Amino acid sequence: MKKLFEKPSFQYTFVLAIVAIVCGLAIGLVNYATEGRIAQNIIDNKLEAYSLVLPGFDKYDEVDVDGDPASVISKVIGKDVDGLIIGYIYEVYATNKFGYMRIVISVNNSGTILGAEFIEINQTLNVNGTKTNLSRYVGASIYDLEPNGDLISGATYSLTTVQVMLADVAVAHRNTVIEPELTYQDWFGMTISNYLNQTLSLSEVTIG
Amino acid sequence: MTEVKKVPAKKKKVEEQEPSLWEIFTKGILKENGLFIMVLGVCPALAVTATFEGAFGMGILVVLVLTMTNMTVSSIRKFVPSTVRIPIYVIIIATEVTILKMLVDAFAPDLAKELGVFIALITVNCIILGRAESFASKNNVVRSALDGLGVALGFGLALSVIGLFREFFGTGMIVLGKTLPLGFEYTIFQNLGLDKYAFSILVQPPGAFLMIGFLLAGITAYRQSKGAKK
């Protein structure tokens, strides 16, 4: 055993192994202590981003992402206080050679982007430019992205990543969107009670 | 024949005297500032100094990593074979940065969001490996800790100055409590209406080059004039 330790190659390997094991244990211990809090922070961030991208958002229904592009991690149907659908929120994750980014986008029934926000943006280059680029798509149609060029000089690569993410959202949105049911008025016009009420109020005005 | 000058024994002894703990601590802050004098660690200085809080936050993280790394490297220096010392230092630095990243993600999520990938990139900051190799591997724990603390404080101070100037001249105000978990949010100079005169390019990526360039030029000019006077 003593002879084995005299060999330099064994000595180097032994020291490296000990250091690596100690470091691994330290990382594992801290990970164990913090993982719950980190997961909760991500959920809080997500909910905050949901309410930012979809004004009036109160509750949501999770929808399965089977059949959607791999970059779409989750999608939910956003509802207001009365339970009416006000939009669809997509969480998208993508990587490029500068790192990774995670965004949430809300889209309404007709495909208009209502809001877009970064949950995480780990890019080594031009983070602010990338954020601005995403925000400028708000109001555009997800099926026909405008503007489609280089918006802010210097963030070209991340802009391409953002556009790929939005194109994936378009595919997911086609798979998800629920056409709203037509109301009675849309099918048959005004209801009798409404008609009578309106007539009554008109006559009141005339008499008055 | 040239005459060999004999150095008196007493004078030689004085020259070889080790620097005091105070000298070790202070030299990295101003005299041998990592960023402004040695021009090391420029990558984070360019990337995370758009806001004062982001730069200050990065400074705090570098202080923690550099001090811990120097202490760890110094405490194991007698057991580490010199052939594998660099991979061991890299493992130690990477571990400390990973642990710090998890702690920041857990307890300061806004700072983690602001600094993004640059927290993980502290691992490859040349100041940290440089101090481990040139100082901590040859000195005891106390001296190494003070050296790490001094150099990191100097680096953090430099980052904060750049961040302060960039945010103030780029937006006309300084926001506090938005990124760091201070427990309050306050904007300095908000009511002065300076935002109309702000140079917004300073908070854009080219602004980092401009600001660092101006500061380096100013410091170099000051040092040269001081040297000329002497």
How would you explain this protein's 3D organization?
The complex is a heterodimer of chains A (208) and B (230). By secondary structure, chain A is α+β, with helices and mostly antiparallel strands. Chain A has two domains: 2-49; 54-176, no CATH class. Chain A has helices at 2-6, 8-53, 127-135, 156-176, 184-188, 192-207; strands at residues 59-63, 72-79, 85-96, 99-107, 113-123. Chain A has a five-stranded antiparallel beta sheet with strand order 1-2-3-4-5. Chain B is mainly α and 230 residues long. Chain B contains nine helices and two strands. Chain B has helices at 9-15, 21-27, 42-47, 52-75, 85-107, 109-115, 126-136, 141-171, 205-229, and strands at residues 174-176, 186-188. Chain B has a two-stranded antiparallel sheet. The mean pLDDT of chain B is 88. Chains A and B meet through helix 2, strand 5 and helix 3 of A and helix 5 of B.
Summarize the structure.
The complex is a heterodimer of chains A (208) and B (230). Chain A has 208 residues and is of the alpha+beta class. Chain A has six helices and five strands.
**Total number of domains of chain A:** 2
Most extensive contact: A-B, 29 and 30 residues
Overall geometry of chain A comes to: elongated
Ends apart, CA distance between termini of chain A: 112 Å
Find the count of extended strands of chain A (DSSP E, 2+ residues).
Answer: 5
User: What is the beta-strand fraction of chain A?
Assistant: 15-25%
Order of helices and strands of chain B: HHHHHHHHEEH
Instruction: List low-confidence stretches of chain A.
Output: none
Total number of helices of chain A = 6
Helicity level of chain A: 40-55%
Derived from helix and strand composition plus strand pairing, the structural class of chain A reads alpha+beta
Annotation field: number of helices of chain B: 9
Give the structural class of chain B: mainly alpha
